[in-house]
């Protein structure tokens, strides 16, 4: 089975020798080798790692994805195989969506629907386990938001985006306020806030960045332009299609992992709003392990690894854009 490895710590050197990535952990640390034939991704999670040009060339030759994260988990550099399918045809039709409001609406609504539906299904799962009345009421409220979403009409892409985002915001408020109910009081979770310095929000931010990198790779290899989005407004230098695409996977790939971790009692120190290198490595491994777990989707009977669902959904999106057929996103079946 192909795997991902996370390299963190300081004084670590990554090299190459005889078909293997060699990892030396510095004075007093261990040295080990990993066969490149068994790898599909290498993540460098701290600034104290050195990698040789020979190792980089070998990663390219073997088609291994190399991702470099900053201290908050955001991917600041990546190197992946240049095997991208049907790029020109796909991207030409992707750009034309700006002039086809009816079809753009179908994609935007489906992405938002999948996001909100996954929030609903997770709250439903929590209610079945915890039997908290507020969770049941939240499920009812989010069902109403889904109906509101499906009834949206608009005369322009700008108006459509605004109305969809308004519904998303209401659903997100209901979702996160109820997540706050089940989290231990000592973590001080105020609700979802990207800029908050509490443990849960920092863990979510870091974990979403790892998922973000995975989604970026999937949509790029599917031939899509990551900078031309549907729901999020285009911004120079921002891969807004990734921002759209990731919404369908946040709950399954990250939320339930972090919520389960924190409710189990796991804690770590926060220094100046940042996780320690050891905590970053641990969280990265947890998220990557979850990406390898198998899930079901309401649209198909298959049971696939989550990373396979991400890839399949990206290719489904590209196919639907080329053919103007119905796009089906990802909704988990717990």
Please give a structural write-up.
The protein is an alpha/beta fold and 334 residues long. Strand 11 and strand 12 (303-305) form a beta hairpin. The strands form four sheets. Strands 1-5-7-8 form a four-stranded mixed β-sheet, sandwiched between helices. The radius of gyration is 21 Å and the shape is globular. The longest helix is centred in the middle third of the chain and has 30 residues, at 101-130. Helices cover 51% and strands 16% of the residues. The two termini are 24 Å apart.
Give a quick set of tags describing it.
single chain, 334 residues, alpha/beta, Ribosomal Protein L15, Chain: K, domain 2, Four Helix Bundle (Hemerythrin (Met), subunit A), 2 domains, 4-stranded mixed β-sheet, 10 helices, 13 strands
The computed structural class is alpha/beta
Proportion of residues in β-strands: 15-25%
Query: What is the helix fraction of residues, given as a range?
Result: 40-55%
3D shape:
globular
Domain count: 2
Mean pLDDT: 92
Give the termini distance in whole angstroms. 24 Å
* The top level CATH class name of the largest domain: Mainly Alpha
Widest sheet: strand order? Answer: 1-5-7-8
Q: Any guess at the CATH architecture of the largest domain? A: Up-down Bundle
What radius of gyration results from the CA coordinates?
A: 21 Å
CATH topology of the largest domain: Four Helix Bundle (Hemerythrin (Met), subunit A)
Instruction: State the total count of DSSP E strands.
Output: 13
Low-confidence stretches are none
Q: Helix segment count?
A: 10
Largest sheet: 4 strands, mixed
Q: What are the secondary-structure elements, in order, as H or E?
A: EEEEEEHEEHHHHHHHEEHEEHE
CATH homolog superfamily of the largest domain: CRISPR-associated endonuclease Cas1, C-terminal domain
């Amino acid at each position: 089975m192909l795997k991902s490895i996370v390299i963190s710590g300081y004084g670590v050197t990554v090299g190459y020798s005889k078909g293997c990535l060699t990892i030396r952990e510095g004075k007093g640390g261990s040295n080990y080798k990993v066969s490149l034939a068994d790898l599909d991704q290498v993540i460098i999670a701290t600034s104290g790692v050195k990698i040789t040009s020979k190792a980089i060339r070998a990663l390219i030759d073997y088609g291994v994805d190399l991702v470099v994260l900053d201290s908050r988990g955001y991917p600041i550099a990546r190197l992946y195989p240049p095997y991208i399918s049907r790029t020109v045809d796909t991207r030409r039709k992707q750009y034309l969506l700006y002039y086809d409001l009816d079809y753009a609406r179908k994609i935007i609504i489906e992405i938002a629907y999948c996001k909100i539906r996954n929030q609903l299904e997770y709250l439903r799962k929590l209610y079945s386990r915890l039997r908290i009345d507020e969770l049941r009421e939240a499920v009812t409220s989010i069902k109403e938001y889904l109906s509101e979403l499906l009834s949206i009409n608009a005369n322009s892409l700008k108006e459509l985006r605004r109305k969809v985002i308004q519904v998303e915001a209401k659903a997100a408020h209901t979702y996160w306020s109820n997540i706050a109910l089940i989290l231990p009081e000592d973590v001080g979770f105020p609700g979802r806030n990207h800029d908050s310095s509490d443990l849960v929000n920092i863990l979510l931010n870091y974990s979403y960045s790892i998922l973000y990198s995975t989604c970026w790779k999937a949509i790029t290899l599917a031939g899509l332009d990551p900078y031309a989005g549907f729901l999020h407004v285009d911004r120079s230098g921002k891969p807004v299609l990734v921002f759209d695409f990731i919404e369908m996977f946040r709950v399954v790939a990250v939320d339930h992992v972090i919520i389960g971790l924190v409710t189990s009692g796991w804690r770590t120190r926060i220094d100046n709003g940042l996780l320690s290198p050891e905590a970053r490595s641990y969280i990265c491994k947890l998220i990557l392990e979850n990406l390898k777990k198998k899930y079901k989707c309401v649209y198909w009977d298959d049971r696939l690894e989550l990373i396979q669902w991400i890839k399949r959904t990206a290719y489904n999106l590209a196919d639907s854009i080329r053919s103007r057929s119905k796009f089906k996103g990802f909704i988990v079946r717990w």
